[in-house]
Structure formats: C-alpha cells, structure tokens
Amino acid sequence: MAPSLEEPIYSTPTAKKLLVPSSLELKAAPLAYEPGRTVVEGHESYEHDDLRPYFPIVRWEPLTEVPYHDKGLEGHPNFQNLLSAAVDVFDYNPKIGTEIVGVNLAKLTDPQKNDLARLISVRGVVFFRNQTDLNIEAQRELGQYFGKLHKHATTSIPRKPGLEDVHVVYTDEKSKDQRAYFTPSFLWHSDVTYEIQPPSYTSLKLLSGPPRGGGGDTLWASQYAAYDSLSSHMQKYLEGLTCLHSAEMQAQGSKAAGRTVRRDPITTEHPLIRTHPVTGWKSLFFNPGFVTQIVGVPKTESDAIIRYLNEVISTTQELHVRFQWQKNDVAFWDNRISNHSASYGFAPHRRHAVRVACHAERPVFDAAGKSQEDELHARYGLPAVNKNGAGQSNYND
Prior knowledge:
The chain is of the alpha+beta class. The chain contains 9 helices and 17 strands.
C-alpha cells in the first residue's frame, strides 16, 4: 500500500470496541439437506482399479489341516502394549464392538499385534478409523502374522496378480439390486465355516463407500452372547450336538453365474457349541448362511433348532453392533465368535472393500469352558441375569 499523503494523527491508546454483527449478519446460509439423499461420488479415474474384482479360471487342491497357534495367548491381559499407542478406546455396547483411536495398524509391533488378537478374542470385533497407511500388502502382512491366509474358492480376488488370498467385496453403480434374493436372517454368517479350519482373525478395509448416511453399514453379532442368552437347559442340550456346514449353495451360485469354482465344495461337521482357546469362553458356533442340518436328530427337530437359532442371532438386539463405514476404515473381527451381516439400501453408491482372513484351529468344545456373561458379571459385581420368562412384566422402553 502506498504511504498516506496526509500527516498521520496519533492518539492516546483506548480500549477497542468489540464490533458485534447484527442478527442479520450472523445468519448463515441454510444447510443443503435433502432427506434420505446423499451425493454420489464419481469414479472416472479410480485409484483402486487394480483391486477391483476378478474371477480367475483356475483349480486348486483341497485344503489340508495346517498348524495354528493363537497369538492372542501371548497378548497382555490389559492390552497395555496396544493401548499405549491409542488416544481413546471405547466399547459400542457391553457385549461386542470396540473402537480404538490413534493406532496405526500398519506400524504395530509384535507385542501390539498379540494384544490386538487378545482384544478381538474378548470383544468380537474392533474398529479402526482412517487407516491410510494400511495398503493391501500391509494388510496381508498383518493377517499372515496371525496364521495362514485363506483362499476363497468362489468369490472374487483382486485384478492385481499375487493376491489370491484376498477377498474382494464390490458393488458399483451398475450392480443389480439383490435384496429380494435373501431373507434378512439368511444374510447373517460367519465366513467359510464349512472349511475344516474356519478363520479366526479377519480384517476388512473399506476402499470406497457411501458417504455418511448413505447406507452400507455392517452388523456383527456376538456368539458368546448368543450362547449366554440361552437357558442352562438349552445350553446343555446344544453342547452335545454337532451340525453340518456346507459350501454347496455358494458353489452352485458361482456355477449359475458362469464362474469357475476353484476348489470342490465340501460339507464339514463342527460342534454346535465351541470353546475359545484364548478366553476359555463358550460360544454358539452357528450361522444361517452355511449350517444346513443338525446331526443326530430328526429333521423336524433339526429344522426347529435352526429356526430358533436363526431368530436368536438375527433378533436379539444386545448381541449386535452396527458400524457406519467411512473411507479407509478397518474392522478386525474373530469369525469363531461372531456372525456378521451386510446391509442393503446404499445404491447407487460404490462400495469396495478388501478382506484378509487367516485359518484358525479346528473348532472344539471343552466342557470345562466358561460363560462370558457369568465371568464378567462376577468380576464386575453385576446382578445375575433372569432367564425365567414365565413371569409378567410391564415393558417400558
């Protein structure tokens, strides 16, 4: 600015008056809001094109049993190694779901990884926001720390070579609406439970998805809590049963779509109640997606048990946690002790995620196992849960 052409006038300092805008000036522009509508992101130049789905025409040998050691057994009881890097940690509800803030999954030390496994074993699923450093190579490396990575026999893998053990979740603007093909309870599942060693620690990273309020949430249900919701009589009855988990429907769906089934479908018998090697807690090991029959009982009885357990899993709200995704968020869960379900209604947004899962031990039932609910209630001095439904109550929400 040019110097003033007038002589400056110097005055003694005085307190400055605070200029308060009028009410008219304070009024901000109204928020742009349309109920139920979110802006759809364009993808003309897509940064994750190499991770889009691909269905290779290959054949794989049947899986054989592999050694497994649960890293959660080496974790600190209070998760102090993992939480030393966190700025916040909180549970979504008492039964399942925890979010950790401030931890970079791509830079965990081995003791922190062990704590992570232990925490997932206790809480079922743990959430981490904005994990930009966790690219697919880092995600695989983290998964391999926990065990041998699973290769899915039917679903898509990334286009990028060398990622046969990565499962791609992908729906885009042109995808067909599939809601009418499934009942809501059928969508609840634990991943590939038909395998002889179904997965334990499993990570899913969202690469692209609907904005906040655009749908596409994922729900998890605690199988610890499902077991604990049953009466002691039903628990004892189910502890003596096994059930069949089948890959046949998944394989038939792939064949109907003209895709290669890379490994022959199998049906495997697993205990209906299993015991977790880290916590020692008993959990239901059942899911509507893959369990086809209860072994050793008449079909009428089997069908009744399946319907009953489907209802327990899909409608018992305190078992559930719901996660609203944002780009680069990661969910890490234990497939041995949780079911999960996608949710529809996010079209026409693109939803693209990559999943890595490691094999666990063969499911086993240990009669000496404990109840999560009983142990935690005793530890925290909480009142016993009433399981006698014969009384009368005036329900209040």
